[in-house]
Design brief:
The protein is an alpha/beta fold. Helices cover about 20% and strands about 30% of the residues.
Amino acid sequence: MLEQRVMLADEAATIRLGISLAGLMRRRRGGVVTLHGDLGAGKTTLARACLRALGAMGAVKSPTYTLVEPYSLGSCRVLHMDLYRLAEPEELYGLGVFDEPPTLAWWLVEWPEKGGALLPPATLEIQLQASGAGRLALLRALNSDDFPD
């Protein structure tokens, strides 16, 4: 697995990473991006920036309570998931996400560990963690083409 480390000095840097992530999502038809990190690490900020860069208009809601928010953004279909409230991975079946597999849509998944082995392998994993006054983003991908620009 290939790794990249990106220092995010502030929220603006997290937003720039989200915009870069949108570039990856435009280049491919679908895949799975997992966002890892503690509460307040910046997962939703990153996801929101990505969705806005892809063309989402209006409120970009965190799917904390709905668990899944679908977006049709031109030729890009994105399922933004927040699995924090899942009690067990099998609850994914009731969300309808398997009707839109990551070969046809992007799955942008916060708290992927709650989905367990039912989640398909990640195209790109992003781990966000505090580092001094900012954050460190550790990106992991199987292929160099799966990193944001």
